[in-house]
């Protein structure tokens, strides 16, 4: 294990940060559990956001992948491909976007890149509005719409990006405002910005900011933004890479929580749909999707094997009502964690929807981010057999919980106990 870590250092760039002082090598998984190279079992409260949407080693997905791989592993371009067409039809219907078309990619980054390509071509503008504290991926254009400099390694950009308020609720000039005043201030800021710039192509937003620490604007903000933007013809891109597929419990897509004005013009997805296989994609109205006037293909996007995984995974998710499970089990978990948080001086807030829960840590008696505590809790939880994540701007001080959507109540309670213990270790 340690020699693997040494080899990893030799082959990887310094900016590739791993979790834990002694990084974990995960060798296999089942359900909501994974095992490390020493045979130790962990309850996985973070795999859901990374890749594993339903469950580790889900037999239905494994079987579909094996059978498809045994038939043909091929590029999806140039020839017809039945699993891709079937998954596209299902995703188009589920998206809520009228007359929707789907284009498959291999990652969330590439999905957002494609959305930017479409929006800028459709609107003949390279101006993009993005949210402060956002994260949208790691390509040249995706980092240039990422409003969090811990994840945006260059300021050079093919786009002109303007960042709007509303991404982080808890800090910044509007932190002390109530919901209605906050919305009013952010909308006034947006109107002011639009008055001073050329017309942007689109605004891209995560319904709940993932890497930014599971923070979301108050209900009504995005709807108010959209009313303003529609007057200017600016498109709305909903980055559902973390919030899609029922994770937030009440809704299948994150946009629906902000959806007074209907579906977005463009929706991007990735991560969990393949349950670990690399699927990303863009859904857009036909007129937006078809605005490019040259070929723009992806060799591996939509490959039959990943599509077979996506179809099996999506069927399992819908047939077992995992969205309902996220609502029920997530609701209970948030309640438990709020009770635990109330007893800790370090916990500023427990927030989230469904199985997407953040615990923001601060230095006791202050409003100051506490990244040391977040790292300590991460380590202590691991010791207790629980894997969680962290995030939240530069001062990574929000614990992130996003288990596979099949999490049981017993497992939720088991994980909450470990977290309570881990939080006690930091006070
Ligand atoms: N958008 C969001 C909201 C994300 O959280 C991520 C990944 N953390 C991405 C885009 C990029 O996805 P990928 O890592 O698959 O390129």
UniProtKB/TrEMBL annotation:
GO molecular function terms listed in the Swiss-Prot or TrEMBL record: transaminase activity
Keywords from the UniProt entry: Aminotransferase, Pyridoxal phosphate, Transferase
Protein origin, superkingdom: Bacteria
EC id: 2.6.1.44
Cofactor names: pyridoxal 5'-phosphate
Top-tier EC class: transferase
Subunit (UniProt): Homotetramer.
Name recorded for this polypeptide: alanine--glyoxylate transaminase
Protein family: Belongs to the class-III pyridoxal-phosphate-dependent aminotransferase family.
Species this protein is from: Streptomyces gelaticus
